Every structure is written in structure tokens, then in C-alpha cells.
Amino acid sequence: MVERRSILKPDGTIVPGSKPRMDEEFLLEALRLMMLSRAYDERVIGLQRQGRFGVYSPGLGQEASIVGSAMSLDPSRDWIVPQYRELMAVVRQGYPLELITATYMGKTTPDTRIPEGVNVLPTQVALAAQLPQATGLAWGLKLQGKDAVVMAYIGEGGSSEGDFHEALNLAGVQRAPIVFFMQNNQWAISTPRRMQSAVPSFSLRAAGYGFPGVEVDGNDVLAVYDVAVEAVERARAGEGPSLIEAVTYRMGFHNTTDNPSRYLDPAEFEEAKQRDPIQRVIKYLTAIGLWDDERQKTADQEVAAEIERVVEAAQAQRGVRPEMLFDHVYERPPERVERQRAEFLKSVNGH
Amino acid sequence: MPQRNIVEAINNALVEEMERDPRVMLLGLDVGKLGGVFRTTTGLIERFGDRRVVDTPLAEASILGASLGLALSGMVPVAEIQFLGFTAQGFHQIGPQLAKYRHRSRGRFPCQVTIRAPFGGGIRSPEFHSDAVEAQFVQSPGLKIVMPSNAYDAKGMLLEAIRDPDPVLFCEPDRLYRLGRMEVPDGDYRVPFGKASVVREGDDITLVAWSAASELCQRAADTLAADGIEASVVDLRTLVPLDVETLVKAVAKTGRAVVVHEAPLSAGFGAEVVATLMEEAFYDLDAPVARVASYDIPFPAASMEHWYLPSLERVVAAARRTVSL
User: Fold this and answer.
1) Are residues A204 and A342 in the same domain?
2) Is the CB of B61 less than 8 angstroms away from the CB of A173?
3) Structural domain of residue A258, as residue ranges?
4) What CATH number is associated with residue A14?
5) Average confidence (pLDDT) per 10 residues, chain A, 351 residues
6) What pTM, to 2 d.p., does this model score?
7) Quick one: pLDDT at residue A281?
8) Which residues contact A54 (CB under 8 A, 6 or more apart)?
9) Which domains does chain B have, with CATH numbers?
10) Mean pLDDT of B217-236
11) Cβ contacts of residue A349 below 8 Å, gap of 6+?
12) Tell me, what's the pLDDT at A1?
């Protein structure tokens, strides 16, 4: 069996002998992001049910994996190549939450896109297609002598795609400065992990590409951060790619169109809840005197206020207009497309 | 002025552009020491090193997807897909990804990527090597599709492609690679996209084609001239952007047209050309527009390809019939 790296146990105690890299100040920041993630999920699922928010995939249950991995990066030089369930990773990297929220609210304008200078690529729902792109990005940064690392996200389901294999293979050959961060949340919509692959640990696949793979408790933010920092340092030192399998559990649905009651075993779900990534951090911080009811109350209020600010700011963004429909397809659109645009605007303006 | 065939013209364009712009790099199967299976990249790895001329693993999706990422990092990749038919194994990284990335990112991430791919029949290559699948890419908005038919255009359009801020699929007619030489200047010149070329002017009928079929139409025009039929030949050069103006003007002038391509007939790009003529030139037509294409069957074994591909006889016969109507 592969060792599953772990530091912070579900009961909030530290695995004896382990020394987490993450200091207390950073852990408090991680907790804030994880709490924001969970409260945001709840808020926008409510908005989605009212028809005010698009199809959404919550990070519920995976907060430690998402936040712990992203915190290993330096947003000013490193890049995140997301899949679609890494919201707080992308926020931590510098894409303002209000702009992402506005996008989900249908305000898909250039104002709410990933801003210049924010090292994040667009989310990718054609699963694993982002990985060869991430490999190319890392390879190109290396060719130009830039001191940058790429963190590319994938799920255990997406790892069945051919692009996963091609991307990791090329990254290994080019020793690209990249970390492939796999969130194994046990579910690809309704398809369970055992139907996805016969490999006992997805981390073992790294051996096939000539670089290290590591399995980590994805609900343990301290351990996730540790293995991510190791992989990032390795990449930065020119030693090439790593694969991290963060073993976690999707405590929500695939997205707002999904109905897990059709396939989920309630007992398994109850068991997963005992391994909650946020509760164990709170228990730990409480035990070392850095958390109490008062702090919890303040933190809850701050998170709630932040989300209200974000939703209001998103609502204040301008919406889409017909003139935008043809934007950003080409720098110099073909004459035939320009003609279609003119005809469209005439028709939509009622002439 | 130097005489070059298409292989030499492409090689010359790559050398000059890599000299001019240090961001330009080549990647693909066997593009290094071998110089490519058609030798278009001969000498480049020796000149520019193995960081800028890269033999990749045998995997189209990663060649194409990595090219997208390389472009985002600030490089200017020129990817070679060994044969256009092999793009099927990486199609997702072209149509849904590269072509749409500027749009998906709302303008934040344009992709300056050129994909070079030889294609076409007539050289007796094995299965999948000859497929003329250019029309499959036309329904990928964001992508330009370039189909040179001669060495001068090949160099000028490849330079245009590499400098285009958007992704370009550059399809090379392998049957014509070494067919003959023509004047191809040293140094920088560009053949703009969306400008069809009227290769030959005649009053009786217009033959419309691109890539290797353009060469076929020029031979057909010679044969027709011997019969007293004067044909114009329009080489579209690029399918996206399409030069509607030159096409319509040339067909309106003769009132008759035959569209010729190597792809199977149904929903080939010829269908788009004919539909465009119906919209734009209907009242100038004296006869229905004819199409000569390959048949709606898979590309056959090499021993039968001459029956499958548009032939001189079929083009000439279609032109004669159209003129007689």
C-alpha cells in the first residue's frame, strides 16, 4: 500500500512526530479561505435555486485540498491551471471573487474576465484538456528562464482521459516545472472511484512518467500544504513535475443539476462527514489556544459580510449587450463574420 | 531570384522567421534530426538547437495542447502534425480549445499558434495519411484555415500565419511538395489571408479550387484551351477567411463555374462555395455550378486512389458539360 501523508488527524490532533511547514498565521488564513469557501457555496446554491446564478460545482468537503494546494504558490510568479472546482484556489491566486460571481450571474463581459497580471487560466469543463496546455505553459516558462511553477488541477475522473496521459508524459520528458494536483473526491458525477481505475492509488501513475507521485489526506490542510510545497520546490529547483493525489470526499453534489440521492450511499456520506476538513482545523486551533467561540463568531460575521459585499459588487457589474456577442473571436475578424455581426445587430435592434 | 519548391520555401520561411523572432519554436514528430518526414525542417535543429526544434512524444493532443500553453507563456509555437488525418487524435485541442481560447477567456488569452500539416492524395501513402479533412475545421470559429498551392504562396502565407495573433491551420499539399520550382524571394514578404488569387483569366468558365486541386485546375484549363474553352482559375488560398468578393466577381464574369476539391463531395467546402454563389451570384449564372470532388467513401488503398481523387478527365468533362448548358 502507498503511504497516505497526514499531519492533522480528523480529531484535531497532530500525528506524533510530524512538523507542519505551515505556520499558525498561514493556518488562520487557510481557515478563513476554507470558511469563505463553504459559506459561499451555501449562499450561491441558494441564489442558483432562485434562478440568479448559473450551474455551479461546490467545493464542499474539498476545502483543505483546494486551499492547501494553492497556498503553496507565489501568485506573483506562479500559475494556476484550474479544472472547475477550485474556486478558492483561483481567488487566493488573485482573481477577485466578485468578478467570478458576476460571471456566474451571467455578466460574462470583458470587465469580469481574469484580470491582466493574474496568473490563472480559464476553468475547463472538457476534462483533462487543460493538462497538455498546462504542460506547455510550464515548459514555455522554463524555456524563457522564468522562475515560475504551474499548478494544474484534475480530478480522479478526469485522469481517465487520454489528455491526462499525454500531458504527464510530455511534462516528464521536458522536466517541466509543474505540479499535477489531483483531487480524488471519489465521484465523477455518479461514477464511483472504483469504476474509474483499477490502480490502488492514482499517485502510482507518476512512476509511468518518470517523476514522483505522492498520496495525501486531502482533508488535512497541513499535509496538503506540505506535499504541495515539496512539489513546488522540486519544480522550482529544475527537478521537474510531480503528481499529488489528494484523497478527499465530495460532500456536495457534482453541480447544481445533480441529484446524489439517486446513487449515494448515506452511510458512506455520514462516515465522510466525520473527516470534515474545516472542523479538524478548528479543533486543533482551539486546543492550542488560537480559537474560541468568540473568534468563531467574529469569523462567521466577517465571512458573511465579505460574501454580501461580493454579491452586491457582482450585481453592480454591467450585464451583457448584443454588441458583445461577436467579441473576442479573432483579433481581425474575417469580413464574412463582420457582415454577420452587422446583420445580427440590425435584427436585434429591430430594423 | 532563387528558385524553390514548396519544401524549400517552407524551410526558408521557418529559418528566416526563427532568425527574426527568438520566440518562434518548432515541435512535432521527427522535426529534429530527421528534418520531418517530408524534410521541410531539414537543418533547423542544427541551426537553432534542440530547445527551439523539439521532437515530441508520439501524441497529437499533447503537441497541440502544449502549443497552446507555450503560446500563453510567451513563445510562438509552430506545431507540425505529421499528416492532417492524424489531427483526429488531437482534434479537441484544435477546434474546441485553440480556436476558442481567445473567446473562452473573453480576450485575455489569444493563442498565436501555427499548426502545419501535410495532406492529400496522389503520393501512394498508407491509410489516414491522405485524408482531406479541411472542411471539418471550418466549423471551428476562431481558427484560420490556409491552403497554399505553390511555393511562393507557401512562404508568404507561412510567414503571415506565424505572425497572426490567432491560431492558424496551415495545410500543405504533399503531392506538390517537389513538383517544380518557382521564384521565391529571400527575405520577408507576406501573402495576406482572405485574398483569393485569380491564377488564370478566361471568359467561358471559372474553375474554383484550393491547394493541390488548384494545380489540377490549371492543367484542366490548359486542356480546355486546346478545345477553345477559356477557363479562369480561382485559387481560394484560404477557406477562413473566405474571399467572397474575388470568388463572386470571377464567377459572375463567366456565368459558369466548377468547384474542385479532394475532400469527399458531401459537405465538403465546395458546398459552402456553391451556397455562397447562390446567395451572391445567382442572377449572373448561366448554368448550375458543378462540383468535382472525391466520392463519399473512405480514402481507398493507394492502388485505387487515382480512381477516387478528382482527375483531369473529370474536371475537364464537368467544365465541358457546364459550358454546353
Assistant:
1) no
2) no
3) 4-320
4) 3.40.50.970
5) 95 96 97 98 96 95 98 98 97 98 97 98 97 98 98 98 98 98 97 96 98 98 98 98 98 93 92 96 98 98 98 98 97 96 94 58
6) 0.97
7) 98
8) A48, A104, A105, A106
9) 3-183 (3.40.50.970), 197-324 (3.40.50.920)
10) 98
11) A322
12) 81
Contact B73 A135 (CB under 8 A): no
Give the residue from A114, A166, A180 with the most B CB atoms within 10 Å of its CB, the best one to mutate: A166
pLDDT at position A351 is 58
CB contact under 8 A, A116 and B108: yes
Q: State which amino acid sits at residue B137.
A: F
> Mean pLDDT, to the nearest integer, of B179-190?
97
Whole-angstrom distance, CA of residue B291 vs CA of residue B269? 10
Are A328 and A225 part of one and the same domain? Answer: no
Which residue stretches of B196-289 are H helix? Answer: 212-226, 244-254, 269-281
Interfacial residues of A (vs B; Cβ cutoff 8 Å): 108-110, 112-114, 116, 121-122, 126, 129, 131-141, 143-144, 146, 162-163, 166-167, 169-170, 173, 327-332, 334-337
SS3 A198: coil
Residue numbers in B near A114 (CB within 8 A) = 105, 108
Q: What is the ipTM of this complex?
A: 0.97
Question: Which chain A residues have a beta carbon less than 8 Å from that of B97?
Answer: 126, 129, 133
Strands (E) in B120-227, as ranges, are 144-146, 168-173, 182-183, 197-200, 205-209
Residue of chain A whose alpha carbon sits nearest to that of B90: A163
Is residue A304 located within the same domain as residue A326? no
The partner residue sitting opposite A110, judged by closest CB among B68, B106, B245, is: B106
| Distance from the Cα of residue A153 to its chain's centroid | 7
Q: Based on the domain organization, do A49 and A74 belong to the same domain?
A: yes
Amino acid symbol at B119 = F
Instruction: Looking at the structure, tell me whether residues A148 and A207 fall in a common domain.
Output: yes
Q: Do B66 and A131 touch (CB under 8 A)?
A: no
Same domain, A344 and A285: no
Pairwise CB contact (< 8 Å): A166 & B59: yes
**Domain count along chain A:** 2
Catalytic residue among A49, A77, A263, A321: A263
A93 lies in the same domain as A125: yes
Contact between A85 and A59 under an 8 Å Cβ cutoff? The reply is: yes
More confident residue, A269 or B206: B206
Note whether A170 and A56 are same-domain residues.
yes
